[in-house]
Amino acid sequence: MRLPARLLSLSAVTAASALLLTGCFSESASDDSAGGSAGGDGKRVRVAMMNPPRSGLSPLSDDAFKLSRWSTAETLVTLDADGDAEPALATKWQQNARTWTFEIRDGVTFHDGTKLTAESVVRSLTRAATASPKPRILDGVDLTVKADGDSVAVTTGTEDPLVPQRLSSPQLSILAAKAYRGKTVSPVGAGTGPFELTKVNGTSSATLDRYDDYWGGTAKSPGIDVKFVPDGTARAATLRSGEADVVEAVPVSQAALLDEDLVTEVPMPRTNTLYLNTGSGPFKDASLRAAAREAVDAESIVKGVYEGRADVAKGLLGPALPWAADLREPVQRAKSGDPNGRTITIGTFTDRAELPEVAQTLQQRLQKAGFKVKLDVREYANIESDALAGEFDAFILSRATVLDSGDPAAYLYSDFGSKGSFNISQLSDRKVDAALEKAAGTKTGDARRRAVVDAEAAVLATDAAIPMLHERVIQGDAAGVVDVEHDPRERALITADTYVK
């Protein structure tokens, strides 16, 4: 097995036919009409992405992370490699009990030419805070926003040490007034980043052009041409054929077929987890959840499905958060019961090419343990709502654990809090809720890390989720690509410094 030439740590940072790919990026692959290269040579960056938009690229959905990866929508703050907040559209901030005051950067314009003001920030954050459902990062947070001269005052219902980190979430991007004219939020021509989103072609493609008045300096590439290619084999083929410059989420099965110099393996704060429905069905019984846990052989999945390009999970939080392993202690769990031929349905999705194979492996293991197992495998866009509604007995999900705030407490609340918006396990447990509440209210530092690991232990004790492995996402970059990002948090990809030789 040939390993990737590069492996980045957190701090450093099925078959498809040829016809499917023909002309994939032909419309603007070498278009230099957007102007000079400003350090590049005038070529546009062609990107093949995995997941098509699910909500019309609304920043209030997970589509927000696409806007961030294309450097078109920005937030008040960003996060450094350690998860600490750094200035972006806000230059500085301070806390006074429940209120944080953010000073808004001067000289910033939106892509429609209007000026960034405190009122602009209030409008965007208020729309997010009052949305239904709220962005995950605001789960359980009562947040109000008011303008105060050139600053913005953000007040929470209870004292919240994580407000700056929360405001770094791409789902809290600041957009121009034009974005909010309808019932949905449209980011087209409404961001502040170095690239302006100029066209969205449904779920097939998107076009971005350089924004020459960007406050942070002119981008080196004249634009970005995005194609959404859910099929992993087809996506990898765009790199082999030279039709894409940057390819995200290359399937493990395809990595060995690519030139190793074009492949980067990025250890991610992402856990492949088997969520068990604690609200209804067979897994409402804790002893059957324990039986499922004992049937899972994560090591064989890592070796057989991921070809060793993943880490066996010891908990929900993986190697990208090394302090978790140092603090983790053994967890007391329920004893295993007899499945006695109970029928269960496991759901998962095709967008991540390895997951259907993981499902088949689990099916075999669970059937051997005494369950009868049915599989339901679809594209993510067609299965998410059923998963959240508790329609499956179990669901296999590749889940980012620090995606939103850089802090895993938000992920734990969202996925396992009784009022969490992403509670696939339908978990409602007083001990878990108490541990999550404690973690959320603890100030940043060693004490918060301890509280987070205690909350993880409370979740694991329920067997509502069986962590199997921590992924290393594989990214493909053509030989001529310069300064593309390899971001473990999946927030950055094409930046103002990225260009194609």
UniProtKB/TrEMBL annotation:
One of its GO terms (molecular function) is peptide transmembrane transporter activity. Keywords: Signal. Residues 1-29 form the signal peptide. Residues 86-421 form the Solute-binding protein family domain. Pfam families: SBP_bac_5. SUPFAM superfamilies: Periplasmic binding protein-like II. The keyword Signal applies. GO terms for cellular component: ATP-binding cassette (ABC) transporter complex; periplasmic space. InterPro entries: Peptide/Ni-bd, SBP_5, SBP_5_dom. One of its GO terms (biological process) is peptide transport. PANTHER family: MONOACYL PHOSPHATIDYLINOSITOL TETRAMANNOSIDE-BINDING PROTEIN LPQW-RELATED, PERIPLASMIC BINDING COMPONENT OF ABC TRANSPORTER. This is ABC transporter substrate-binding protein.
